[in-house]
UniProtKB/TrEMBL annotation:
The protein's name: ParA family protein
Taxonomic source organism: Schumannella soli
PANTHER family: COBYRINIC ACID AC-DIAMIDE SYNTHASE, P-LOOP CONTAINING NUCLEOSIDE TRIPHOSPHATE HYDROLASE
Gene3D superfamilies (alphabetical): P-loop containing nucleotide triphosphate hydrolases
Domain CobQ/CobB/MinD/ParA nucleotide binding: 4-175
Length: 213
């Protein structure tokens, strides 16, 4: 069992979208639980809209201090969506104490990088939890956006997922529709959207496969 925190104190980085869709893809092969410790409760709202259609289990309003106990539950992976602000730092710190891995989604914009670096340097690195940056909401129609962001992360020397998450309208609509990526109406855009998350899930698997037993 692995506990994966999805964290970045920069708001709107794509944490909730990453949590729900990565969980959906992981649930195709594993027993998955999503936990919401964010007082803003975006994941909970999304999960409520989805109702019984959700392809994984969901736990709302979880006290981060109780997360360690959840390790004994019969799941292969627990994804934890965390708060995107500085006020709730204590919640994030509690999550990082028990997490085995941290996914750090960030928008592919230069101005979003300093607040992300702050979260990494002040909270993630001190906790000693392995992490990777995940470029999110990447607009493929903006020439050079992806390459520019990749170069910036490279220059700072942060580990990142090779694959990025592209920006699609279907992702923005999903919380209102109560769907996750594996349930979007079939289209070329859906196929690409699913492919992004499958690629990230595979990268996670390969990181874990190379870990010492
Ligand atoms: N890949 C994407 N394509 C299109 N829209 C996206 C994508 N990822 C996120 N969004 C949209 O961007 C906004 C912010 O995303 P999200 O809520 O996932 O970020 P967050 O980091 O959880 O925010 P917060 O810090 O407020 O918790 C939402 O409106 C969401 O629908
Ligand atoms: Mg969120």
């Amino acid at each position: 069992m692995r506990i994966v925190a999805v964290a970045n104190q920069k708001g709107g980085a794509g944490k909730t979208t990453t949590t729900m869709n990565l969980a959906a893809v992981a649930a195709e092969h594993s027993r998955v639980l999503v936990v919401d410790v964010d007082p803003q409760q975006s994941t909970t709202w999304w999960a409520d809209t989805a109702g019984d259609a959700l392809p994984f289990d969901f736990a709302a309003e979880v006290d981060a201090a109780h997360l360690a106990r959840m390790r004994d539950l019969p799941y292969d992976v627990i994804f934890v969506d965390t708060p995107g602000n500085l006020t709730d730092s204590a919640i994030l710190e509690s999550v990082l104490e028990v997490a085995d891995f941290v996914i750090v989604p960030t928008e592919a914009e230069a101005l979003c990088v300093p607040p992300m670096v702050r979260t990494i340097q002040q909270l993630i690195e001190p906790a000693g939890t392995p992490f990777r940056v995940l470029l999110s909401k990447v607009d493929m129609r903006t020439a050079g956006q992806l390459e520019g962001a990749e170069e910036l992360i490279e220059t700072i020397g942060l580990p990142r997922f090779t694959r990025a998450i592209r920006r699609y309208k279907i992702h923005a609509d999903a919380p209102i529709d109560g769907t996750v990526v594996t349930q979007y109406p079939e289209s070329r855009q859906t196929a690409k959207a699913i492919d992004d998350y499958r690629a990230v899930a595979l990268e996670l698997m390969s990181i874990w496969a190379h870990e010492a037993p």
